[in-house]
Design brief:
Elements lengths: L4 H10 L6 H4 L6 H16 L13 H4 L13 H18 L4 H10 L18 H7 L2 H5 L2 E4 L19 H4 L1 H5 L8 H4 E4 L2 E4 L12 H12 L10 E4 L9 H10 L23
Antiparallel strand pairs: 1-4, 2-3
Helix pairs in contact: 1-3, 5-13
Length: about 280
């Protein structure tokens, strides 16, 4: 049976890339297995009627590039594996009493704040979780902390106030801070029903630093966070405030493309002849 390139591409997207989804959501993707599966995908996409070999007209990396950037939008299984395993990082702090989390905590212990476990080192421990835990540094960039009581959120290093962590937004003030390891609760107090910020520095401010201090305090006092609720986390990249595979996948796929690059005019080339629903 003859299949056009469009038909083969549709089968790859709808069927072949979905077959290993369960495995990818639980285990790291071995490099040898990934290379073998990609070879099958390439052979199917560029194959002919029989067993004869066909030239691969486009690099597979380009085939896996999103359509808006000039590719064909085929799922990259290695990236998809990182996305699905990243869901366990989200579940770690949302499923407080889950048995699997208690096992991880018993093996590695909680990192400061309890949002993730300590990073495993040495030859002991669960190799699967070590692989998942290595993705925390990337995962953490796309979450935002909601300060309640504030005892689980780092005042300077976590993103909870403004558009970036305070150590990056105000590096000059961070370098002269007396306590860089303090939590939000350590810096905040309630006086006659009004929130007061008690930030100590190692020296007096220079004249040229006063504008930064003013912006710093204005930002802090603009945060009307209640002190009676627990600290929470929300996902930054969508409007639902919860982690989704689609949102995280889009981040990892597009992070290699410059923000200023003009979008590929794919709608002028790939015009659908099918009427809309």
């Amino acid at each position: 049976m003859y299949l056009s390139k469009g038909g083969r591409l549709t089968l790859i997207k709808s069927t072949l890339t979905n077959l290993p989804t369960y495995f990818l959501s639980l285990f790291p993707f071995p490099a040898g297995v990934g290379n073998r599966i990609e070879k099958i995908f390439r052979a199917f996409l560029w194959g002919g009627m029989g067993e004869e070999k066909k030239f691969h007209l486009v690099r597979w990396k380009t085939v896996c590039t999103p359509i808006v950037h000039g590719g064909l939008g085929v799922c990259d299984l290695r990236t998809f594996n990182k996305v699905l395993l990243g869901k366990w990082l989200w579940r770690y702090h949302t499923e407080g009493d889950a048995l699997w989390k208690e096992i991880i905590v018993a093996c590695y212990g909680n990192a400061w704040g309890g949002w993730c476990s300590n990073e495993g080192s040495g030859g002991y421990g669960v190799g699967l979780w070590k692989f998942i835990r290595r993705g925390w540094l990337c995962f953490e960039k796309h979450i935002r902390f909601i300060a309640g009581e504030g005892n689980r959120i780092s005042f300077w290093r976590d993103l909870w106030c403004g558009d970036q962590a305070l150590e990056r937004a105000f590096p000059n003030l961070y370098h002269i801070a007396a306590n860089r390891e303090a939590s939000v609760a350590d810096m905040r107090s309630l006086h006659h029903g009004t929130i007061q910020w008690n930030i100590l520095f190692n020296r007096d401010f220079h004249d040229w630093e006063l504008s930064s201090v003013s912006d710093f305090l204005s930002l802090l006092y603009s945060m009307g966070n209640p002190m009676t609720q627990g600290d929470r986390v929300k996902w930054r990249s969508n409007n639902y405030k919860k982690f989704t595979v689609k949102a995280y996948s889009k981040i990892l796929i597009t992070q290699n493309f410059a923000q200023g690059d003009p979008p590929f005019l794919w709608k002028n080339i790939w015009q659908s002849r099918v009427p809309p629903k």
